[in-house]
Amino acid sequence: MIALKFLILAALITLAVAPLPHHHHHILDFGHFVRSVLKTTPKPWWPVWKTKAAALGVPHVFKAAELPLIPLAFLAKGCVKSVAHVAHAGSILLGLSKLAFPLHLTIAIHSIIGLSKALGIIVGVALPALGAIIGSIAIAAFKILLCVSGHGKLPVSGLSPVCHKDFGKEFGCSPYTGGHKTPLDIIDHYHLGDCANQINQLVHKTSHGKGLTGLHPSIQTIIKIVKDVTKLFSHDAKHIWAWKDIEHVVVALASILGVIGNSYSCTDGYGPDLVEGIIDYLTPIFKICGLDVACHENDIKDVIKNCGRYQFGGALKNCEDDKGGNGDEGDEDCDDENGGNGNTGEDCEDGSDENTGNTGNEDCDEENKGDNGKENTEDGDCD
Questions:
Q1: What is the pLDDT of residue 96?
Q2: Which of 14, 71, 186, 221 is the S-S candidate for 45 at Cβ 3.0 to 4.6 Å?
């Protein structure tokens, strides 16, 4: 376990000090990166800045050295170490919780892939096939966009680290043995081309023929989220990949994280706070690269807001063990008010969402675009 932690730390340090492929470095601008915090009772997973801001009821202006992912440490403690691979998921989450804002996109990508694997492990204890899909969507999407000729939207000098066969090894990613000629090479390697059929069979078998309604609401919502995002990889869809698809993948992962947070904590608000942490962490570097997940925040919170407690087949500790709780509360459909489709990945209509650090003046799909309407990705940090 100690060796794993050092491996993760060493990998992140290597990425952090690696020279950028361009001669100019863009400094992350935190001057307008603000999160409004209501005056309320502190939660056990809150970082110091949020506790202080909540005591005063004032907005918080982020600083580069802060740790927006620190709420993940609370979930890491909830991972049951005696269950196969779940201790590894806890180690990944704990490592991510110690990361400051990424200075360039490679570190952000590395973190997203780690989160994807950790979430896949937790969900996989209850439904292994579903967990395997969740654990693969991030690395598959990034390999398609950065390693397949003609699909990458960002300027890449030489071979991106993502294209190395051992990228993500410390998170449990198996060595990549497929090709990079077409997206299909990568999709087939990760078995993502027929996810809808795989999931439908899984639901039928697990629910004993009852369909989604025969499953716990948290699982129902995650299944809907995964079915939506994996349309990107479908053989039938023949999707034309663009860098904006990363928003869709990250929104899906943030939504799944929020469901798991609500499933674990006995104190209200953990899921939404985890969602905020991921959005806060990615916003500065994503903004430079022409991406925006902040404008999806309210949609994600709507999808997860009614999800109750669930232990994912024993992957998570029961937060009420000392009170005799059974961890099975929360019978409402998590996304009844959202059409029941779990889809939070469409392009945003505006940038006026509260509590996201957005100024409200930019259109989410137009930010960081030049006069020609193309994404502005000239800054070397995007590599």
A1: 96
A2: 71
Other beta carbons within 10 angstroms of residue 5's beta carbon come to 15
Give the model's pLDDT for residue 379. 40
Instruction: Please tell me the predicted confidence (pLDDT) of residue 324.
Output: 31
d(CA 18, CA 165): 19
Residues 200 and 178: their CA atoms lie apart, in Å, by: 27
Q: How confident is the model at residue 34 (pLDDT cuts 50, 70, 90)?
A: confident
| Range from 83-92, 290-299, 305-314, 322-331 carrying the lowest mean pLDDT | 322-331
How is residue 317 written in tokens?
Answer: 């500790």
The amino acid sitting at 143 is K
Report the b/e string of 330-366 with b at 16+ CB within 10 A: beebbbeebeeebbbbeebeebbbebbbbeeebebbe
Beta bridge partners of 369: 375
Helix (H, G, I), strand (E, B) or coil at 180: coil
DSSP string of 117-155? HHHHHHHHHH-HHHHHHHHHHHHHHHHHHHHSTTT--S-
**CA atoms of 24 and 18, how far apart (whole Å):** 14
Measure Cα distances from 336 to 199, 213, 223, 268 in Å: 20, 12, 14, 19
DSSP 291-304: ---GGGHHHHHHHH
pLDDT band at 149 (very low <50, low <70, confident <90, very high): low
Question: The whole model's pTM is what?
Answer: 0.79
**Could you give the 3-state DSSP secondary structure of residue 245?**
helix
Which DSSP string corresponds to 299-366?
HHHHHHTT-----GGGTB--TTGGGT--S----S-TTGGGTTS----SPPS-S--TTSS--S-S-TTT
Three-class SS of residue 233? helix
User: If you compute the radius of gyration of the chain from its CA atoms, what whole number of angstroms results?
Assistant: 20
Residue of 286, 291, 288, 260 lying closest to 273 (CA atoms): 260
Mean pLDDT of 310-314: 92
